TrEMBL record:
Residues 96-131, 171-206 form the EF-hand domain. Pfam families: EF-hand_8 (PF13833). It is found in: Cytoplasm. Keywords: Calcium, Cytoplasm. This is EF-hand domain-containing protein. SUPFAM superfamilies: EF-hand. The keyword Cytoplasm applies. Its main location: cytoplasm. GO terms for molecular function: calcium ion binding. One of its GO terms (biological process) is microtubule cytoskeleton organization. InterPro entries: EF-hand-dom_pair, EF_Hand_1_Ca_BS, EF_hand_dom, PPP2R3C.
Length: 280
């Protein structure tokens, strides 16, 4: 009697991707020494989106119907000339993107021990992420090491991949769920005005250190409340962030001074984009 597989574990997912590589035109010339690392990076995106409860298993049907597989299959295109540099960079499964992520991790890993400390992770994105956010990432998404003492905690490569996936997919339910756990300072399942104030205080500090104009934290807090319009006027739940369609923007405003700058300058940035389109 044949037993039909209904799910992949991580190793099976990596093997599945390895089997696809010869059929994907843009990956055929991948250096053999990089194949194993590439499969780890590629498989992690499937698990980030297809294994939301982190059970270590991804439903095969969900994998086959996922946007991830569609994105991977885009690499069938024979000529890279048909694909812009921007499209390659934005496709997680492109060789360019995989090498970028590896280079990023290696650059952050100053002590070359194969994991990232909080101090090392704070240098991500040129140091624009807030200290409290990095602390919360470690609290919620990094397991304590079994080596070197019970409180030793460093981020391994797989956890780093999840971190990057969350930040690069903030507008998705999966990315926003990851980030909400970090924003939820007290683990209550909702954010209060006090939480918003605490989170934005670090952004405000970086904002002022960058030579920007003075702003009122309470005004930003009220603006976020207006953007979300939560069902309960006293608290913001994950469901509120998902339904308001601006959850990714709000998360950026609370964890990254560059994200807040982009929101504050959104009209100018939109105008620049429109001008570039007209010139093209």
């Amino acid at each position: 009697m044949r037993i039909l597989m209904v799910s992949f574990n991580l190793m099976e997912m990596e093997a599945y991707i390895r089997g696809l590589i010869p059929n994907l035109a843009q990956l055929r010339d991948m250096p053999s020494a990089f194949v194993q690392m590439y499969c780890r990076i590629a498989a992690r995106k499937f698990f980030f989106f297809c294994d939301p409860h982190r059970r270590g298993k991804a439903c095969i049907k969900k994998v086959l119907l996922s946007n991830c597989l569609q994105e991977l299959m885009e690499l069938h295109q024979e000529s890279e000339e048909e694909v812009t540099d921007t499209e390659q960079a934005e496709n997680w499964f492109s060789l360019t993107s995989a090498q970028r992520i590896c280079d990023m991790f290696l650059a952050l890993d100053k002590d070359t021990n194969g994991t990232l400390s909080k101090q090392e992770l704070k240098e991500y994105a040129d140091g624009t992420l807030t200290e409290i956010f990095v602390e919360r990432v470690f609290d919620e998404h990094v397991r304590r090491s079994k080596v070197g003492g019970g409180n030793s905690r460093e981020m391994d490569f797989e956890s780093f991949l999840d971190f990057v996936l969350a930040l690069e997919n903030k507008d998705t339910p999966e990315g926003l769920t990851y980030l909400f756990r970090c924003l939820d300072l007290n683990g209550r399942g909702f954010l209060t005005t006090a939480d918003i104030h605490t989170l934005f205080r670090d952004v405000h500090q970086k904002w002022i250190e960058g030579g920007n104009y003075e702003l009122c934290i309470e005004d930003v807090r009220d603006e976020i409340w207006d953007m979300v319009k939560p069902a309960d006027p006293l608290r913001i739940a994950l469901a509120d962030l998902l339904s308001c369609k601006q959850g990714g923007t709000i998360a950026s405003m609370l964890i990254d001074v560059r994200g807040f700058w982009a929101h504050d300058n959104r009209e100018n940035l939109l105008q620049e984009e429109e001008e570039q389109v007209e010139e093209a």
